[in-house]
Specification:
Layout (H helix, E strand, L loop, with lengths): L1 H10 L12 E10 L2 E15 L6 E8 L2 E8 L5 E8 L28 H11 L4
Antiparallel strand pairs: 1-2, 1-5, 2-3, 3-4
C-alpha cells in the first residue's frame, strides 16, 4: 500500500483547485485537433465528485442547445489544465442529480457570496464606534 501512495504522489498534480458541489466552474481542457493543440472551456455546474487521491473526478453539467451535457473530468489528468470556480452555489446534497430533470431557470442554484464570518465582520466595521 505504501508503494501505491508514493506512485500517486509522483504522478499526480501538486496542487488541486478548490472545487465544491454546486459551483459553476470553467474547466480549461486541452484538445488535440490534428497537429495542433488548443485549450477549450467547458463551463457548467459541478454535480458530483468521486474518488480519492489520484482517482478523484468531477462531473460537470451544462445545457447546450436545450440538451444537457455532462462530462467527467479526472482532476489529475494532464489534459485538464485548470479549473476556475466562477460562482459558489449553496447546496444541501452531495450529489445534484436532481438537476437532470430540470430545464431553464430551474437549474440555477442560490449563490453564496462568501463565508458568514466575513459578512459579520464587515457589518461590525461599518458600525459607528461608541
Amino acid at each position: 500500500m505504501h508503494r501505491l501512495q508514493t506512485i500517486e504522489q509522483e504522478l499526480g498534480k501538486k496542487t488541486l483547485p478548490e472545487v465544491r458541489i454546486g459551483d459553476t466552474v470553467e474547466v480549461h481542457y486541452l484538445i488535440k485537433e490534428g497537429d495542433k493543440e488548443r485549450v477549450q472551456l467547458f463551463i457548467g455546474t459541478v454535480i458530483a465528485q468521486n474518488g480519492r487521491g489520484i482517482r478523484r473526478t468531477v462531473t460537470v453539467r451544462r445545457i447546450v442547445q436545450g440538451e444537457g451535457v455532462e462530462r467527467v473530468f479526472p482532476l489529475h489528468n494532464p489534459r485538464v489544465k485548470d479549473i476556475v470556480s466562477v460562482r459558489h452555489g449553496e447546496t444541501r446534497r452531495a450529489k445534484l442529480f436532481f438537476l437532470r430533470d430540470r430545464v431553464g431557470k430551474k437549474t440555477r442554484l442560490r449563490e453564496v457570496f462568501g463565508d458568514k464570518e466575513e459578512v459579520e465582520t464587515g457589518a461590525e466595521a461599518d458600525a459607528p464606534q461608541a
